[in-house]
Amino acid sequence: MYGQDVELDDLSVDFKKVMKILESSVDLTCKQEEIWFDHEIRSLTGIDVFLFDFDVKKGYMIYEKNNYKLLLIRMEDLDSVFEYAMLDFFAKKINTVKSKNVGDQKIYKSTYKKVKNAVNYDNTMIKKMIDSRFFKQFYHDYETSVIERWGSRK
Fold first, then answer.
1. Taking the model in full, what pTM does it have?
2. Is the dihedral of CA 23, 102, 34, 1 positive or negative?
3. Which candidate, 6, 31, 52, 99, has a CA 20 to 30 Å from the CA of 42?
4. If phi over 0 gives left and psi between -120 and 50 gives alpha, with beta otherwise, what is residue 66?
5. Are 130 and 30 in contact (CB under 8 A)?
6. How many other C-beta atoms are found inside a 10 Å radius of the C-beta of residue 34?
């Protein structure tokens, strides 16, 4: 999705267009996430992250196979688990990195916040997301909170 696809003449956002794009991309996005892991990780290392139970509470996991060692951190957990994950992975302390490219700090932050607050999905879309292999692997403990946060608000 690009700005020119959803911007109106006054540079505000056409929320109906945003939702239409999001709705049409749910199936594809869920599948693309699975394909990415297969293509970028499994095909190169032999590590299939979907064969192991991801520790959702921990927010990261270390996988090992043959001569490969892989650290997988969920991006939303990066700030809170970075130091622990680095210590686990490298066996040494590495200082936290500073967040960059944060939408809430951009010039378009008010529009960004408006879109985040306005987005909601119907039950069919939520079910597609929750039933995806990707969600079941990395977010299974968050089903209720996802429904509450992103479900239709009436």
1. 0.74
2. positive
3. 99
4. left
5. no
6. 15
**Is 121 exposed, middle or buried, given 0-12, 13-18 or 19+ CB atoms closer than 10 A?**
buried
CA-to-CA distance for 60 and 78, rounded, in angstroms?
9
- pLDDT per position as a tens digit, 119-149: 777 788 888 888 989 999 999 888 898 888 8
Q: Are β-strands 60-65 and 68-73 bridged in parallel, bridged antiparallel, or unpaired?
A: antiparallel
Q: What is the mean pLDDT of residues 91-98?
A: 83
Query: How is the chain split into domains, by residue range?
Result: 3-150
Contact predicate 75/93, CB 8 Å: no
Whether the Cβ atoms of residue 49 and residue 37 lie closer than 8 Å to each other: yes
Supply the DSSP string of 57-126, one letter for each residue: TT-EEEEEETTEEEEEE-GGGHHHHHHHHHHHHHSS--PPPPP-S-GGGSTTHHHHHHHHHH--B-HHHH
Q: Rounded CA gap, 18 and 119, in Å?
A: 9
* CA dihedral of residues 86, 130, 134, 13 (deg, nearest 10): -80
